[in-house]
Amino acid sequence: MPGMVYLVGAGPGDPGLISVKACDCLRRADVVVYDRLADERILAYAPKDAEYIYVGKASSNHAMKQGDINQLLADKAKEGKCVVRLKGGDPFVFGRGGEEALLLEENGLPFEIVPGITSAISVPAYAGIPVTHRGIATSFAVITGHEDPTKGGSNMRWDKLSTGVDTLVFLMGVANLPHITKELMANGRPADTPAAVVRWGTKPEQSTLVTTVGKAAEDVEKAGLKPPAIFIVGDVVGLREKLRWFDRRETHPFFGKTILVTRAREQASKLTASLERLGARCLEVPSIRLVEPEDGYQAADEAISRIGEYDWVIFTSANGVGRFFERLALAGKDARAFGGAKVAAIGTATAEALKGKGILADIVPWEFRAEGIVEALKDEVGTGKKVLIPRAQEAREILPERLRELGAEVTVAPVYRTVAAETDGEALRQRLSDGEVDYVTFTSSSTVTNLLRIVGTAEALHGVKTACIGPVTAETCRKNGIEPDIVAEEYTISGLVEAMGKFLEDGAV
Ligand code: SAH
């Protein structure tokens, strides 16, 4: 049984501009074939275990040839797979969707087209430019700007297009502007006709340059504007002055600001969504993930089965506390199982976590280094004392070693393993040092340490405004050498967003 290929339009960039039907196809996909314009959040509609095939940037050498893409779709469909071929904008507007569909048809393979919102109309709309407008424009054309001017024998009817259509929207035309504008003027379009170039339309980084047909090529060159961008020609461009909404400070106070959102589980999406609604561009730093230790929970479960025999149990992190008590509960036990064992918690966050489980730590060493901890414990943990350390699998060996040197009998029980955030620390540091990031948000102490772990040092955040959800997080910042600029008064995500908005309003950058 052959599968099915859906040629799906993903919309122009704003992940909200995807259709319900497109999401539905993605949810059912076995294979997703996508290219550069696809937003990560759109890809996330597809199942995690689907096969994702990147077929590359149109202009890069790594791009898969169109013939190969067509073949790939056919092969996957023959295997009986549900294939989603995701395309920027609409698949049939300069998307080569027609070619892909034809090959499928020739092979007798079933396909469906899911139209998308094309950049040709939506990008002007986000720039406040209606492609038609009563009394100003009664027609518009969507034109490729990609025709090679040296090729000769152009298919373009410049004579008809230049004056026969009111609004002209050129896709893929940035590099070709000198040629396009020259043809337009040579064929009767006045040099002072309003024109605009919109780059990365519908996305938080959208930028718009308003010019005229006569000056466009020079202005774009001066501004260093690069693809992807569309070029709009016509009197409707004049409406932008009144209709621009997306990049207006009153409605989108964070427009043009890049905000680093350090993720603490599901909190991040809410924060990102709120900030993006206000115009910000958010870069999400994924959180560390806690997973099962490589050798499973055997050591932990074994220790739990005789927990009452230990003289000391040393917790080194709040995560360790959480995981340990999960195992304890699975064994049908609670805090009473500790019996006479004494408990040490390294750091106040760990002590707080323990308190939440009904245990007040006997010792809370402030010092995080093994030396300090051993110093605090040395009168208690001597020869023959049994010590249990439930902790992360990858933790350093110094603490158990030093305790063993004191004569203690130490059991290390891994209760979790942290998987490194899938973040390229080097790339993030580069963005920070390029001044690309305006704000960083912290919604808990662990987001502070997580980000510092990724970027290495507090200095990497130099020049970036820091916003904290509350005083505890702010204190963690200070301890790590970061002075917060904003601390929310109400310790919630909305409180944080509000505090940031106020900070902006007060005239900060
Ligand atoms: N099928 C797509 C167009 C593909 S051709 C659609 O319907 O939108 C690629 C060209 O589309 C780019 O070179 C650029 O001119 C335009 N484009 C696509 N997305 C864009 C965006 N978000 N902002 C500006 N131009 C965009």
Return the domain count.
Answer: 4
Helix % is 25-40%
Largest sheet: 5 strands, parallel
Unreliable stretches covering 5 or more consecutive residues: none
Termini separation:
59 Å
Overall description:
It is a single chain. By secondary structure, the protein is an alpha/beta fold. It contains 19 helices and 20 strands. It folds into four domains: 4-117, Tetrapyrrole methylase, N-terminal domain (Cobalt-precorrin-4 Transmethylase, domain 1, 3-Layer(aba) Sandwich); 121-246, Tetrapyrrole methylase, C-terminal domain (Methyltransferase, Cobalt-precorrin-4 Transmethylase, Domain 2); 252-287 and 421-505, 3-Layer(aba) Sandwich (Rossmann fold); 298-418, Rossmann fold. It has a five-stranded parallel β-sheet with strand order 3-2-4-1-5, with helices on both faces. A five-stranded mixed β-sheet has the order 6-7-10-8-9, with helices on both faces. It has helices at residues 20-27, 40-43, 66-78, 97-106, 119-126, 158-164, 177-186, 216-223, 240-243, 267-277, 298-305, 318-330, 348-356, 370-377, 398-405, 425-433, 445-455, 471-479, 493-505; strands at 4-9, 31-34, 51-54, 82-87, 111-114, 140-144, 167-171, 194-199, 207-212, 229-233, 258-262, 281-285, 289-291, 312-315, 342-345, 386-392, 409-419, 439-442, 465-468, 486-487. Helix 3 crosses helix 4, helix 12 packs parallel to helix 13 (348-356) and helix 14 runs parallel beside helix 15. The longest helix is centred in the N-terminal third of the chain and has 13 residues, at 66-78. It is elongated. The termini are far apart.
